[in-house]
Amino acid sequence: LQSRLPSVGTTIFTVMSALATEKGAVNLGQGFPDFDCDPSLVDAVTAAMKNGLNQYPPMAGIPALREAIAAKIASIYDHRYDAGTEITITAGATQALLTAILCTVHPGDEVLIIEPVYDSYVPAIELAGGKPVFVQMEVGPNGYSIPWDKVNAAVTPRTRLLMINSPHNPTGSVLRESDMRALSDIVHNTNIAIVSDEVYEHMVYDGARHESVCRYPDLAARSFVVSSFGKTYHVTGWKIGYVAAPAHLSAEFRKVHQFNVFTVNTPVQHGIARYMADPAPYLDLPAFYQRKRDLFRDGLKTSRFTLLPSDGTYFQCVDYSAISDMPEVDFAKWLTSEIGVAAIPVSAFYNRPKDSCIVRFCFAKKDETLRIALEKLARV
Ligand code: PMP
Ligand code: GLN
After folding, report:
1. Distance 323 CA to ligand 1 centre (A)
2. Strand ranges (DSSP E) for 28-158?
3. ipTM score for this prediction
């Protein structure tokens, strides 16, 4: 068989989690919480199961969940999506991203992506026959930022899609209003669609607001907004998320979606719809994770790691050049095996290997886990 994805191997997340397990290391690599979700969320899902809500739901998702999502978006981002035609429930953000790409990109189309980039984007573009065009973020004293002039220079008549991710995995950077204005200027008068990966929308710190593309009417009109309940409700294994997009884009999305998964887990949809009636869990999330971020950053201040900013997500990147000049993959493996803390090399988020002595830690962990990890990291 001739591979459709010849350069794809096992993801770095799987590799580092397996190594962490093998070595008995604290796993700050793969991004997932080591604490459980709210028991009342589990109760809401099991109640749906016990009430016989166990057969296929409507293709786009149950109306109650789509309405809850539309209401949430309207209340926090001041943009009203039509629950019937503009919101589709997906099997996590990963399926949403793949489906959005498959329904937009034709063979030979160019897709502009910003590096470092989440690992599912490029294979998804390649499966669609598209050509990824890379623009690298720049790193300065204030952390990572997107050089919009370079993004603009990379636009060609073949550019079909532009993908952004804020808050950003792995850098923890967050797009600001000025970024959104720059993005609007670039796509103005083009037919470029946008995929906006906002899975960490409720993890923005220090009082800043999340700049969803749907706050900006000219961007909302051309965007697929992707989010994931896995991140927001501490249930990464449930694999449920959604896409919000104008009706003409959602219609194309659903054409692919219905032959990709057709529908998504009924009782989980009912459980989340009920749970969403209370906004507290997502409104409280920034404070919840900001405290963990600060605990982790404070603990690292006396170490030999240099902290990069973490303005959003549950990731903290560190520069280890004062400790070692090992390539990032080797350093992450060494840290896991010899020090007992797993991390993710940021080089894994680049198309061509790029070594900057930066690794990513996930701080979505119990305080106790973070303290154990900090003790070990202080010895490096
Ligand atoms: N996009 C980004 C930026 C992510 O970090 C993740 C989760 N690691 C995903 C998409 C995928 O989310 P899900 O688990 O809901 O498929
Ligand atoms: N999104 C998670 C991370 O960045 C991992 C998801 C996965 O294992 N594919 O760590």
Report:
1. 31
2. 87-90, 110-115, 131-136, 138-140, 143-145
3. 0.97
- Spatial separation of the C-alpha atoms in residues 250 and 86, rounded to whole Å: 6
Tens of pLDDT, residues 126-168: 999 999 999 999 998 889 999 999 999 999 999 999 999 999 9
User: Measured between alpha carbons, how far is 6 from 2 in angstroms, rounded to an integer?
Assistant: 8
Do 363 and 315 contact (CB within 8 A), yes or no?
Answer: yes
DSSP, collapsed to helix, strand or coil, labels residue 195 as strand
Q: Determine if ligand 2 sits within 6 Å of the CB of residue 120.
A: no
User: Which residue ranges form the domains of the chain, and what is each CATH number?
Assistant: 12-30+284-378 (3.90.1150.10), 45-279 (3.40.640.10)
Tokens of 169: 């995995």
CA 149 / ligand 2 centre spacing (Å): 30
Going by alpha carbons, the residue nearest to atom 2 of ligand 2 is 31
Task: Please choose from 19, 30, 235 the residue to mutate so as to test ligand 2's pocket, defined by most ligand atoms within 8 A of CB.
Answer: 30
Q: Do residues 271 and 233 touch, judged by C-beta distance below 8 A?
A: no
The CA 118 to ligand 2 mean position distance, Å, reads 8
- Quick check: 319 and 308 in contact, CB under 8 A? yes
Reading the block at residue 279, the tokens are 């906004």
What digits encode the pLDDT tens for the residues 261-276?
Answer: 999 999 999 999 999 9
Helix (H), strand (E) at residue 163: strand 159-165
Q: Are the beta carbons of 314 and 31 closer than 8 angstroms?
A: yes
| pTM, to two decimals | 0.98
